[in-house]
């Protein structure tokens, strides 16, 4: 996955609002090795995003514990720009949220997005994340401190929204 992730996540368009990705394919190989060790230690999970019918990675989703036992965790994501607006984010985010709340047992999931990252902020709101505050000058990128939006998804809210969507879906099938 290192070569396709390097190609997808190092473009200026994708990397401008995320922590700097590795600058070489070898750097992505080291990142993948680190991610596997962290997962084995039980403090982090990173998933490569692929599209149906292909095995080439087009992005990643990460979940890391903030507190021992994963009661509070942070998640982040990056997708190659050719796949923006295709529905891939929504489908992958739904799977990661299900993993975090149902499998890992997360109670609260946080995310941060640069205020200037309209796409990232919109994507988080679309999956039910609630803006909780502005973290002033909290993200250093290319020598400049940027403000970030802090988002939260609480397990009870996620479950209630999921139940509501199942009910709406079943009503639509009846009609």
TL;DR?
This protein is α+β, with helices and mostly antiparallel strands. The protein is 43% helix and 29% strand.
Description:
The protein is of the alpha+beta class. Helices cover 43% and strands 29% of the residues. The chain has six helices and six strands, in the order αααβββαβαββα. The protein has helices spanning 2-9, 12-15, 25-41, 88-104, 118-126, 155-174, and strands at residues 44-49, 59-65, 72-79, 108-114, 130-141, 144-154. The protein has a six-stranded mixed sheet with strand order 1-2-3-4-6-5, sandwiched between helices. A hairpin with a 6-residue loop joins β2 (59-65) and β3 (72-79). α1 (2-9) crosses α3. The longest helix is centred in the C-terminal third of the chain and has 20 residues, at 155-174. It is globular, with a radius of gyration of 17 Å. The mean pLDDT is 93.
Mean pLDDT: 93
Distance between the terminal alpha carbons, to the nearest Å? Answer: 44 Å
Order of helices and strands: HHHEEEHEHEEH
> Can you tell me the residue ranges where pLDDT is under 50 for at least 5 consecutive residues?
none
């Amino acid at each position: 996955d290192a070569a396709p992730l390097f190609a997808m996540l190092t473009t200026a368009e994708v990397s401008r609002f995320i922590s700097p990705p590795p600058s070489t394919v070898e750097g992505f190989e080291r990142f993948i090795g680190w991610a596997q060790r962290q997962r084995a230690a039980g403090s982090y999970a990173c998933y490569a995003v692929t599209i149906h019918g292909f095995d080439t990675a087009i992005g990643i989703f990460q979940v890391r514990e903030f507190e021992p036992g994963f009661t509070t965790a942070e998640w982040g994501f990056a997708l190659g720009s050719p796949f923006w607006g295709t529905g891939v984010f929504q489908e992958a985010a739904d799977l990661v949220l299900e993993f975090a709340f149902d499998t890992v047992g997360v109670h609260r999931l946080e995310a941060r997005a640069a205020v200037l990252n309209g796409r990232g902020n919109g994507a988080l709101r679309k999956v039910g994340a609630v803006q909780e505050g502005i973290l002033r000058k909290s993200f250093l990128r290319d020598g400049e401190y940027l403000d970030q939006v802090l988002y939260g998804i609480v397990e009870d809210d996620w479950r209630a929204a999921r139940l509501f969507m199942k009910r709406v879906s079943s009503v639509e099938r009846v009609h």
